Amino acid sequence: MRIGFSKDVHKLIKNRPLILGGVNIPYKKGLDAYSDGDVVLHSLIDAIFGALNKGDIGINFPNTDPKYHNCDSIFLLKETKKIIDICMVNIDYIDIFISCEEPKLETYVGFMKANISEVLDIDINRIGIQCGTNEGLGYIGKKKGIESFATILLKEKSDEQN
Fold first, then answer.
1. 138 phi-psi bin (left φ>0, alpha ψ -120 to 50, beta other)
2. Is the pLDDT of residue 161 over 80?
3. With bands split at pLDDT 50, 70 and 90, how would you rate the model's confidence at 68?
4. pLDDT tens readout for residues 36-50
5. How far apart are CA 69 and CA 62, in angstroms?
6. Average per-residue pLDDT in the chain?
7. Residue 69: which CATH number?
8. Residue ranges making up the domain that contains 73
9. Following DSSP, what letter does each residue of 102-145 receive, concatenated?
10. What's the rounded Cα separation, in Å, for the pair 17 and 23?
């Protein structure tokens, strides 16, 4: 059994789409990043790499490589799934927490879960996503950014046969 945990945060800026969990969310700002800035998928990818002891998103998908500029994070998650398969592990459970003051994200959670479920080929009931605010505190509370935390539980394929 392996556990991974990570977080990602990006600053909100004008003239960028807001993409979270692979979902384009209508909002006046988006996240500033080399790729699409999807903090939900970035935190998940980093948690996976942590559980596999394979570095992090910056090592595996460096922002010095032009192929990742404005890259769709769904693509990065698909590439990460290939690594999961090579490592002979299965995903048991994913838990994600998104922290932002606005926009309200609850209506998009089902779509985020569906995207993650499809790419990682796991039952949607093995994915938890919660959303909350910082109650006006800090950079998140001042609506300057969005932060996501992810935890993942992986099981060795040999563990599942026992």
1. left
2. no
3. confident
4. 999 999 999 999 999
5. 10
6. 95
7. 3.30.1330.50
8. 2-161
9. SS--GGGHHHHHHHHHHHHT--GGGEEEEEE--TT-HHHHTTSE
10. 10
Residue 113, CB-side half-sphere exposure with 13 Å CA sphere: 20
Joined tokens for residue 109: 């959670």
Contact predicate 2/159, CB 8 Å: no
Q: Tokens for 18?
A: 């807001």
SS3 59: helix
Q: Does the global pTM surpass 0.85?
A: yes
- Could you list the beta-strand ranges (E) of the chain: 2-14, 18-20, 23-25, 29-31, 89-99, 127-132, 145-156
Collapsing DSSP to helix, strand or coil, 159 comes out as helix
Number of domains in the chain: 1
Nearest to 5 by CA among 86, 82, 96: 96
Q: What pLDDT, on the 0 to 100 scale, is given for residue 158?
A: 77
Peptide bond just before 66 cis, omega within 30 deg: no
Bridge partners of 91, per DSSP, are 154
Residue 154: exposed, middle, or buried by beta-carbon count in 10 A (0-12, 13-18, 19+)?
buried
CB count in 10 Å sphere of residue 90: 17
